[in-house]
């Protein structure tokens, strides 16, 4: 038990599974109580288990974004016609539009039903966004990249390098702009001034990337990648065929009018072929990982709680759909039944049954001295 | 361990070889110091060791280079990762990951070492370099010295037999450089790794170098013990120059050696020369200057006057507020309070084109000011920007650093030449006050001497010059007044002799040997009795 709760960072994928479970649950309902409950659950877990890293602090931004989404949704119902329903609560003068804009209505009567519909809809979308934000706050994005399958190692490295370039670019732009003033740059023509900033910044970036390439080369990057052309061709072909299969399969599954044999069979065989390609590509990699994130019991608990929420929501939606999607025809307080509520509450398990995060993130200002 | 057999190397598109017919044999556990002026071919020579030259740089290599019996001819640099560890000048540019621990493990991951081995080696390396408390930190938040130690650690984890360091301290301030060099000295003693190092702060490495290879720039190399090689190289640390002047044999390699030999010289010298103190009219007066970035105070109510014809050196550790103060005095940096007066105007109240006619400044990364394709274009643009007669900037450049090709690209100039170009561009606006922020960074001895001449000339023309620098020897050779800053305040201010001679932290090598009233080799030379001279 003591070992289970030793502070450590959970596998980032576990948090993503959990968050996706919550957001899938959110797609099944428009009941505002349930949606707010999901947001509360996500927020509680984030507060309980996040570090003080910058990405973890960005959760607040997702909350704001959610609020903006709800407001925009409701506002649009106000502006672009919201007269479906019988309870008109606001009579705005309608702005007549020319004939070619038929089907679009500007202002006019606004009904409570349509406003409520906008609110529910917006709330659902906002909840999904907030769930993704929770995953972002809890899972270190860089560790997630590191947990990619070996076949995608190169892509992961490229992304990590690119991520570290942005702060550097911002820094050099600031520095060069400041230096430009020393040359009296402000009085020059705008295009010339831009030129004077971009050239030194690009030179800086270019020489840095050359240095990085030299450093990576001399530290052995890519030495595991010596495979003969035939093997490379085979893995490439497997991956591409597999991915095409997946695309066709997904399309067919979603579109009811395509022949059924294109759906599940093609999808599953595409996944299989792509996985085989991944495996083959990964097998030839003679690289190892330093302290990889492992998948232990706490990760299973986290993932299971997310999947559990989604599963309960699916089951209840087949039993009693009215609870999950409150009626917009007869206005009433949305009802709430016990089963979906308890289902959503499953999602709060990670706030208790996981070890605390270990990695202390040292903020930059402590170092300046 | 390392064999170079008749190695010649020519860069693509050049006719003259950088290295011609170099034959060297370096044994196990040796520490070899590579010296030479910037651009003489030190980096090229070091690059051949693991095959970055020519596999990465291009060019034509003749002869064979082999490390531990494997030649670089057929195998790319990555195949040498387990044999040769390479550390560059700018640690940050070479980092692949973003935290200390991951960076240390990166090389081992590429070699495919077992996880337990990696774990153990990371711990060992953290302890060896004394960076265990930094393990989880983001690399960008570390200080320069810490970054460079992590960079050294990240190549040590693969247990290379050879460590190649190309000017590992040139981008660091002296305290950080000291940190890194002390770490290296310990590594050499403890691990017995073969270390090849190019270093322009020679004096710090010489005491523990077994061997020195001087690259004069003509293609060949001079090989021998430091004492032999330094006997007649054009670049030499002050200690060696003093030894040559006094005719000591063998040449002293450390302050301790020199001090023991200096007894007779000290007694034969007359009194130390008095250093002239420039005291022209005050050109810039400032009082209670405050600079703050949010809650952080960079400059704490500093008052400073600059006089015509004097060179003021501003010293102090990184982050002590030197740069912030210079930017505030120039007028384009932030200033929260206090007054700055030049000719009864505040440069901050003017637009940047007029402010630079009052106070000129060369920022720390001087190349930020350059953006055109040729030196001639830069000079012409500077004339237009400053409203000077065409050709003025070009004539200034000729006076500062004669012989720079006008068709050259500014990036292709050497560090010192680029600095001269930026200085000429800034002088074309004819300011009477010139501020230089760390101009000595990355300069070799020759370039520093040239810069010293430029600065002395500027002061002789009646300008007030301020130089922010860490380089004590440089300060001793140019400045007549020194200001030391700490935590945004001026902690000491006085004539160079008093400030530098009076404290062991700022004493020059010559002062450590000869006593506090002697700052430079020139001081000693001028006081030597005619007979000895």
TrEMBL record, chain A:
Database matches in InterPro entries: ABC/ECF_trnsptr_transmembrane
Task: List residues traversing the bilayer.
Answer: 32-49, 61-80, 151-170, 231-254, 260-280, 300-319, 331-353
Assigned GO CC terms: plasma membrane
Write out the entry's keywords from A to Z: Membrane, Transmembrane, Transmembrane helix
Pfam hit, one: CbiQ
Q: Where in the cell is it found?
A: Membrane
Superkingdom of the organism of origin: Bacteria
Question: What membrane topology does this protein have?
Answer: Multi-pass membrane protein
Specify the protein name: Energy-coupling factor transporter transmembrane protein EcfT
TrEMBL record, chain B:
Cite a single Pfam family from the UniProt record.
ABC_tran
Domain of life from the UniProt record: Bacteria
Q: Which family does it belong to?
A: Belongs to the ABC transporter superfamily.
Question: Which residue spans adopt a coiled-coil conformation according to this UniProt entry?
Answer: none
The ABC transporter domain, residue ranges: 2-242, 284-512
**Can you list the GO cellular component terms from the UniProt entry?**
ATP-binding cassette (ABC) transporter complex
Topology relative to the membrane: Peripheral membrane protein
Annotated protein name in UniProt: Energy-coupling factor ABC transporter ATP-binding protein
Assigned keywords, A-Z: ATP-binding, Cell membrane, Membrane, Nucleotide-binding, Repeat, Translocase, Transport
Gene Ontology terms for molecular function = ATP binding; ATP hydrolysis activity; ATPase-coupled transmembrane transporter activity
Predominant localisation class: membrane
Which InterPro entries does the record cross-reference, listed alphabetically?
AAA+_ATPase, ABC_transporter-like_ATP-bd, ABC_transporter-like_CS, ABC_transpr_CbiO/EcfA_su, ECF_ABC_transporter_ATP-bd, P-loop_NTPase
Function summary: Probably part of an ABC transporter complex. Responsible for energy coupling to the transport system.
Gene3D superfamilies, sorted: P-loop containing nucleotide triphosphate hydrolases
Intracellular or extracellular location(s): Cell membrane
